[in-house]
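Support case: GDP-alpha-D-glucose complex. Customer-provided input:
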Amino acid sequence: MGKTIIISNRLPVQLQISNGSITAVPSVGGLATGMKSVHSGSDSVWIGWSGLTDEEIPEELVPKIDKALAEHGSSKVNLTKEEVEGFYFGFSNRTIWPLFHYFLEYSEFELDSWTTYKAVNQKFADAILEKAEDDDIIWVHDYQLMLVPQMVREKRPNISIGFFLHIPFPSFEIFRTLPWREEILRGLLGSDLIGFHIYDYERHFLSSVRRLLGLEVSFNEIYLDNRVIKVDSFPMGIDYKKFSDAAKEHSQKPASQQSELQQRLNTHKQSDPEAKFFLSIDRLDYSKGIAKRLYAFEYFLNKYPQYKEKVRLIILAVPSRSNVPQYQLLKREIDELVGRINGEFSTVSWTPIWYFYRSMPFDNLIDLYTSSDIAWLTPLRDGMNLVAKEYIATRTDKTGVLILSEMAGSANEMNEALLINPNNFEQIADALYEAINMPKEEQQARNELLQNRLERYNVEKWANSFMTSLKAQKERDAENISK
Ligand code: GDG
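Agent response - structure generated as follows:
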């Protein structure tokens, strides 16, 4: 077996340029962590965009940047500002993202951005081909790079290629509206193994392959020319230990070492031990259902007025894709809703919503997870939703209630949470009521089951089981060829 080549839109490191010196700082995200066991040592390379366009990188710094990235086993694909516009903000985030999250009315079908998407996918494929040997293993990530598997396959028919989609794959009725639906399917079918978070996405994909391409599909295998393509689900986990250790350490910190945020949270808790914190954390994205959550909060306060001055909703909305018009509109809608609800319900001693529009450092994230009685995560669609898993991992005394949307992939593995339909305000208000009044022993019993499962199926396990399956697929192919 040769080396492993990982490809994603963004590299697992961030470049920092100041006064002519370059540093590459590793990202702390779940994907980068999960891939540690796959991306380590000298026998692997990660290819992706550095986050800086060609126009932003001074020519003379290129060798230094390449060197800094190489130290982290990374190699960059160069993209111009125009390419990033068409490929990333255009086709990826204005066509595929809304369509695959069932926001058909937001999907723009523009030939220009499709053309750029193809060209940029070819750039990624070329970057792989430059480094790849026949016995290498290639793992392509996510919706920005769906044409890459076939582009590589054309030049290297025997190489092993896996693809994992981090967002939902929509039902056939939605997917069929895409003008370039066959090209996208054919692009993905260059893989030997195609992975999704849950079985439903897998089922939707197989149905589209059967109905749009007329290919033979048996159970979870697709037959194309002389190849067999396996489709399977691999629910992504989290770095459980990192979150539970951080929470343990956090609980032992003396007050003097606590963050300002934590101290404020403590003060509010101490002033009214009956008060409850509800926590909502997402990127500011229409798929996450933040506006609906605010309407549901208003509904709850009207239905259960005894909780006025008792509950507080903490919203952390992380800025995302803020140059895409729908995201700007959503930001305005959320700002207005928060203002209106706070204006309507606030008293001199109580503000119902604390709203943060920013990204917070990891330690503050832990402050929020560990201080919140209820995590309220109700996306309208979400491939998985790792925040739900992280919240549970930080509950060291096993208390806390998770209210989770049934439209999140994670709902499949988190049956002990209170699962709700994000469009049903009546059900949400009742779930909040149930969560507030849930006996401690019941919270602990539910969370114990959840924690055990999350600890076992952590992100490393996820990455390893995908790789094991991809290698097995390759071996099966080799056996078939030799027969
Ligand atoms: C896509 C899919 C799928 C959030 N705010 C802060 C912060 N975060 C971290 C969380 C978590 C991550 O960001 C968000 O992950 P999610 O899974 O919830 O959502 P997406 O970003 O939409 O991810 C999703 C995922 O890919 C993996 O396949 O689950 O469905 O949409 O890890 O902790 N981290 C810090 N500060 C913040 O303010 N430090």
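Residues 16 and 23 are 5 Å apart (CA to CA).

Case will auto-close in a few days if no follow-up is received.
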